[in-house]
Amino acid sequence: MTTDSFYGEVLADHNMHPLHKHELECATHCCKGLNPTCGDNISLNLNIHDGIITDGSFTGIGCAVSQASADIMLELIIGKSLDEARHYTDLFRKMIAGEASDEQIEELEEAGALHNVSKMPARVKCALLSWNTMEKLLDQEK
Questions:
Q1: SS3 of residue 19 by DSSP
Q2: Which domain, by its residues, includes 88?
């Protein structure tokens, strides 16, 4: 299996069988995000306790890239501190801009599957939608 086909499988799996696409009852924090260019939208729900993201979910509609990116992001940040979530967001932005090292992409775990989006300008906003929404939510938490 080639690296590209592995990444394709990761994206397809998160798009077809998302673990975190559902309502989250009693979420402590909620934020909506919209990509006006294509109409993708997301509602991000997090439970944050003592500076740790203890649970999270999303709802909304969008392309395979935006939906898979949201699910992968939640998989990465649940159980992490707010500072760690911000760190991953910074790394993800660098990767999407084509500026991340191989080690930084590896640190992103499955989110690294979106590294080729840097070569598809029309999909950059799709991949960043959930990350931008999380950043907005965390900025409100400050």
A1: coil
A2: 3-141
